[in-house]
Automatic annotation (TrEMBL):
GO molecular function, one term: protein-lysine N-methyltransferase activity
Species: Gluconacetobacter diazotrophicus (Acetobacter diazotrophicus)
Statement: the UniProt record of this protein carries the keyword Manganese: no
InterPro entries: Ribosomal_L11_MeTrfase_PrmA (IPR050078), SAM-dependent_MTases_sf (IPR029063)
Designated name of the protein: Methyltransferase
Length: 215
């Protein structure tokens, strides 16, 4: 396994500071060309058992979460927030900027946690980054954010029972761009937005993305 310093160096070397279309206020270390970062990460994965670089892109779910938070800071101000499966950390950074009491960003991929830390530094915010698998942990947060987490059936089946349990004592939001495994029950629509994307990542140039509250 690589060291945190190695991971941060890898992220810095293979990304550029950029801005997501829906959230230009936040700077992020993102891939500017998909193929090179993917090939570099595949090579690195072979040596260090690292996941593909999902952290190098601002996916629609994370963008919608961040936009909603920045437009409605009172929803997170003074609250303890978890950005679960945080990716690049865009939603966590938005919460820190909006005045959350504390922000925790969780990712099990060490490259993702390195990217989140670099992105937090780039935006001058403080948050806690963890590689712990928090599924099953008793909620210690007031608000749990999940962006684009239902892209595979095993992932959905792993996390949804925990999120539904957490929703009894915390507010839980899921932002989803129409993934196949999003459950149809137990979700209340908060808002919907069309978000620009790229044909290299998706099968269309925009994704209709919906923010839900788990009920």
């Amino acid at each position: 396994m690589t060291t945190p310093a190695d991971a941060r160096a890898f992220v810095a070397a293979h990304t550029a500071l950029s801005h997501a279309p829906l959230v230009p206020e936040i700077a992020l270390h993102l891939a500017t060309e998909i193929t090179p970062i993917w090939q570099a990460s595949e090579s690195w994965l072979a040596q260090h058992d690292i996941e593909p670089p999902f952290w190098a892109f601002a996916w629609p779910g994370g963008q919608l979460l961040a936009r909603h938070v920045l437009d409605n800071p009172s929803l997170v101000a003074g609250r303890r927030v978890l950005d679960f499966a945080a990716g690049c950390g865009i939603a966590a950074i938005a919460c820190a900027r909006a005045g959350a009491l504390s922000v925790e960003a969780a990712e099990i991929d060490p490259l993702a946690t390195a990217a989140i830390a670099l992105n937090a530094d780039a935006n001058g915010v403080t948050l806690t980054v963890t590689e712990a698998d928090l599924v099953g942990a008793p909620p210690r947060w007031d608000l749990i954010l999940c962006g684009d987490v239902c892209y595979e059936n095993p992932m959905t089946e792993h996390i949804l029972p925990w999120l539904r349990t957490a929703a009894r004592t915390a507010e839980v939001w899921i932002a989803d761009p129409g993934r196949a495994y999003l459950p149809r029950a137990g979700l209340e629509v908060i808002m919907t937005c069309d978000i620009a994307t790229t044909m290299e990542l998706e099968d269309r140039t925009a994704r209709r993305t919906t923010l839900y509250r788990v009920t």
